[in-house]
Predict the structure.
Amino acid sequence: MKVYVTRRIPEVGLKLLEEAGFELKVSEKDGVLSKEELLAELRSFQPEALLCLLTDTIDAEVFDAAPIKICATYSVGFNHIDLKAAKERGIVVTHTPGVLTDAVAEFTSAAIFSLAKRIVEADKFTRAGKYKGWEPTLLLGMELKGKVLGVLGAGRIGTRVAQIMHAMGLKVLYYDIAHNETLDKMGAQMEDKDTLLKRADIVTVHVPLLDSTRHFLSEKEFQMMKDSALLINTSRGPVIDEQALVQALTTGQIAGAFLDVFENEPEINPALKEMDNVILTPHIASATRETRDKMSEMAGQSIVDFANGKTPEHVVSLD
Ligand code: GLV
């Protein structure tokens, strides 16, 4: 079987594919392939398996460029893949859930802490030589114990963030389409979206990007939030209406934001870069050595399983 990999990923998954005896081609470009480059690669190599990244747009044209039977994405999110086109062609799509839950939840917790404690702002202040001695009210932040955390999307990652923050003494509210037993047992409260937004001191977003969650937070939602509220997004950029967020931060409708993902990655609304109450990171929430190795292994294993006639463990449901 021929396997095409759109960008070099940690070796472990590639090794699995090589050891399985597959003919492997890894893109030599140290960057995201343009659509034309990807199509040209697929048309010339003609792989049956495609290992892609979240930065690739995988649509009908891509699927039709080679006799692809399986598309394994090195990511938990799969909004970059046209699942309908895959289903129509009988192509199996797999992703990498579970292995990045802790990495993303830990990062999100760090985001909450760094925003509430103004760590990045304080670092910039200190480096700029502005520290002239201890002051009683210098860079005051938010105490977390006793505050209300609103978790939008109580899947694996949202649940883990809720557990960590609960242990820190925060009260947890969550919104999801179904009850989450783990969170219910922990004493978290399920709420409708509006109530959660009105009550939360910190809102953290963990919904996947779907048609129904595009601009899940926009002008109307920001108006409901407390003017002291902090917003964290480590899911997908388009879940938040970035222009409306800029407006909400500019007018003081909310107090601050930590964004690891952006509406038009890698572009970032220039206004966000000017704001001291905003922390920006380059989509690295899952970026630990351990997790990226496991993601590589899982993506590789999915292809190996498929080639051996087994159903891979993490097939994306096409319904
Ligand atoms: C990261 O954003 C992922 O979907 O794996």
Q: What stands out?
A: The first strand starts at residue 2 and ends at 5. The two ends are 28 Å apart (CA to CA).
